[in-house]
Design brief:
Length: 205
């Protein structure tokens, strides 16, 4: 496990450098999803929802759904945004081909029937105040009784400070690559019960 904590900007630079020189972005996204899959041992025989946003954090969710399906585990993807990154679309198409159910999140979405919710709505690049559909989705997750897994960071949290106006409250947060400094702050503690990191081969610069 990589214990080093870095800023969001250093992570962004290192990610870009790694993609340009060593590992294709799609492979890094797959490694991130596999890291989440391997960080939790209770997937089987559970009803699973994966809430995905429009960026690469959402792409991790699509890739995770595919990995789960290939291991005989069903999940339902809830799209919180109409947008999709290029790599996200790649893994969304794979999930569709594997028969993963994909729905649009709306005000009537009810997460109460799910045992596990995976939070892939907003990534480490998010700053400011959550609004719109993302806010509704975060509130719906927090109101559920499900076991919540946040991917890379709890949606709505500032990756450098750990502060948030509204953020997902997770049972487990799986940081990707390296811990972001905000995850280890006092401010983040009220949102995160357990924290781990998945090393996916990012070269620091």
């Amino acid at each position: 496990m990589n214990e080093k904590a870095i800023s969001v900007e250093q992570m962004r630079r290192s990610d870009a450098y790694t993609i340009e020189n060593f590992v294709p972005s799609k492979e890094l996204m797959y490694r991130a999803a596999m890291g989440v899959y391997e960080s939790y041992k209770g997937w089987e025989n559970k009803s699973i929802a994966i809430a995905v946003g429009g960026g690469n954090n959402g792409g991790d969710g699509y890739a995770l759904a595919g990995i789960l399906k290939k291991n005989g585990i069903d999940s339902v993807i809830f799209r919180v945004s109409d947008k999709m990154s290029e790599d996200g679309k790649y893994y969304c198409d794979i999930a569709k081909d594997l028969g993963v159910e994909i729905k649009a999140f709306d005000e009537n979405t009810d997460f109460s029937a799910f045992d596990i919710i995976v939070d892939c709505i907003l990534g480490t690049g998010f700053v400011g105040e959550v609004r719109g559909t993302a806010l509704s989705a975060i509130n719906a997750i927090n109101e559920s009784d499900a076991y919540v897994i946040s991917v890379d960071i709890n949606s709505g949290m500032n990756g450098d400070t750990g502060e948030a106006s509204t953020a997902v409250k997770s049972d487990l947060t799986v940081s990707i690559g390296y811990y972001k400094t905000g995850l280890l702050t006092e401010a983040a503690r009220k949102y995160i019960k357990e924290l781990t990191n998945a090393d996916i081969g990012i070269v620091l610069i």
